[in-house]
Design goal:
By secondary structure, the protein is α/β, with parallel strands linked by helices. It folds into two domains: 186 residues, Isopropylmalate Dehydrogenase, CATH 3.40.718; 129 residues, Isopropylmalate Dehydrogenase, CATH 3.40.718. The protein has twelve helices and twelve strands. A twelve-stranded mixed β-sheet has the order 3-4-2-1-5-12-11-6-7-10-8-9, with helices on both faces. Strand 8, helix 8 and strand 9 form a beta-alpha-beta unit. The chain is globular, with a radius of gyration of 20 Å. The chain starts with a strand and ends with a helix. 45% of the residues are buried. It is an enzyme of class 1 (oxidoreductase). Pathway: Cofactor biosynthesis; pyridoxine 5'-phosphate biosynthesis; pyridoxine 5'-phosphate from D-erythrose 4-phosphate: step 4/5. Catalyzes the NAD(P)-dependent oxidation of 4-(phosphooxy)-L-threonine (HTP) into 2-amino-3-oxo-4-(phosphooxy)butyric acid which spontaneously decarboxylates to form 3-amino-2-oxopropyl phosphate (AHAP). It catalyses: 4-(phosphooxy)-L-threonine + NAD(+) = 3-amino-2-oxopropyl phosphate + CO2 + NADH. Belongs to the PdxA family.
Length: 326
C-alpha cells in the first residue's frame, strides 16, 4: 500500500501531543494523516506556537490532500477547555474517546493504522477510570494480547513484562507468558516487518543469566525450557544471555530483536541510543499501532520547544508496517 490512511490521536490535551500534531503539519509529510482531536484545541495551540494551520474536517468519503500547514481533523470535543501544562481530569473521557474512535476505524478498515501521542495515566486514574496504560487499553478494546516493542538506534527491544514493580517481575516470568510473547514477536516480525526468519536474542532475568543457578534459578527452571520448546518448533532463539553484554554493538547486528525480561533492563540502552527518535510498536494486536517514545512533557506544552522527531518516526514506522503487512 503506497499511501496508507493513518489515524493520529493527539493524546493528553494539556501536554505536548497537540503541539506535535501542529508541528508536523509544517513538515509536508507525504502521508494521509487524520488527527483525532478537538479542532479548537489544535487551532489554539497553533496560535500559541505561532504556526500557520488550516483545519479541514475529516470525511471518509472526501479525497485526502496532504499539504504543508493543512490538518485533516476528525473532531471530538473536549469536556473542558485545556490549558497547556495543567491537566484536567474532566478531559479523561475525551482522551479515551479519541482512542476508541481510532481503534474502531482501524478495525472496520477505515484506517490502515493508528499512531498515538502520549497520554497521562495519572490524570485518567484521577477521573476514577482504571487505566494502566495505552497498550493495555488498546488490548481491551481489540481483545489483543499485547507485547511492547521499541525500535530505534538500530535495535528492536521487546519486553516480557512492562509496567510492573521490580519486586513483581520474577513471579510474572512464567513459561506460558514467555512462550506466548515470543510467538507473537516472531509472528509480527514476519508478517509486519517483512523478516522471514527472525533471530531473537533473549536476555536472562538475573545477573550473568543466573550463572548456572548461583545467582537465581529462573533461567534453569523457566527460561531455558521455554526456549528449548520453541526452538524445537522452529524458532530462532539465542540465549538466555547476560543482559550486561547483550547490547554489545558487535553482537547486535546478529539479532533482529532483543527480548528483555523487564522494562528497565532493555529500554535504557535503546533510549540512550535513540531518545527522541525511537518508536513504540504494539505487537499482538489485530491492528497496527505505533507511538512516541516519550511522555506528555507538560512543562513544554505550548512553548514550541517540543521535538516532533519521535512522532515523525512513529508515523513513518506505521506506514512501513502497513506496507509490509501480509
Amino acid at each position: 500500500m503506497n499511501n496508507p490512511k493513518l489515524a493520529l490521536t493527539a493524546g493528553e490535551p494539556a501536554g505536548i501531543g497537540p503541539d506535535l500534531c501542529v508541528q508536523i503539519t509544517q513538515l509536508g509529510l507525504p502521508f494521509k494523516l487524520i488527527v483525532i482531536a478537538d479542532r479548537e484545541l489544535l487551532q489554539e495551540r497553533a496560535h500559541l506556537l505561532r504556526l500557520p494551520l488550516t483545519i479541514t474536517d475529516y470525511s471518509s468519503r472526501a479525497e485526502h490532500r496532504p499539504g504543508e500547514g493543512i490538518l485533516h481533523v476528525l473532531h471530538i470535543p473536549l469536556a473542558e477547555t485545556a490549558t497547556p501544562g495543567k491537566p484536567d481530569a474532566a478531559n479523561a473521557s475525551y482522551v479515551l474517546k479519541t482512542l476508541e474512535r481510532a481503534v474502531a476505524g482501524c478495525v472496520n478498515g477505515e484506517f490502515d493504522a493508528m499512531v498515538t501521542a502520549p497520554v497521562h495515566k495519572g490524570v485518567i486514574n484521577d477521573a476514577g477510570i482504571s487505566f494502566t496504560g495505552h497498550t493495555e487499553y488498546l488490548a481491551q478494546l481489540t481483545n489483543g494480547r499485547p507485547v511492547m516493542m521499541l525500535a530505534g538506534g538500530g535495535m528492536r527491544v521487546a519486553l516480557a513484562t512492562t509496567h510492573l514493580p521490580l519486586k513483581d517481575v520474577a513471579s510474572a516470568i512464567t513459561s506460558d507468558a514467555l512462550e506466548q510473547k515470543l510467538r507473537i514477536i516472531e509472528h509480527d516480525l514476519v508478517t509486519r516487518c517483512g523478516i522471514p526468519k527472525p533471530r531473537i536474542a533473549v536476555a536472562g532475568l538475573n545477573p550473568h543469566a543466573g550463572e548456572s543457578g548461583h545467582l537465581g534459578r529462573e533461567e534453569i527452571d523457566i527460561i531455558i525450557p521455554s526456549l528449548d520448546k520453541l526452538r524445537a518448533g522452529g524458532m530462532s532463539l539465542i540465549g538466555p544471555l547476560p543482559a550486561d553484554t547483550l547490547f554489545n554493538p558487535s553482537k547486535l547486528k546478529d539479532y533482529d530483536c532483543i527480548f528483555a525480561m523487564y522494562h528497565d533492563q532493555g529500554l535504557p540502552v535503546l533510549k540512550h541510543a535513540s531518545f527522541g527518535t525511537a518508536v513504540n510498536v504494539t505487537l499482538g494486536l489485530p491492528i497496527i499501532r505505533t507511538s512516541v517514545d516519550h511522555g506528555t512533557a507538560l512543562e513544554l506544552a505550548g512553548t514550541g520547544k517540543a521535538d516532533p522527531g519521535s512522532l515523525v518516526a512513529a508515523i513513518e514506522m506505521a506506514a512501513s508496517l502497513v506496507a509490509h503487512q501480509r
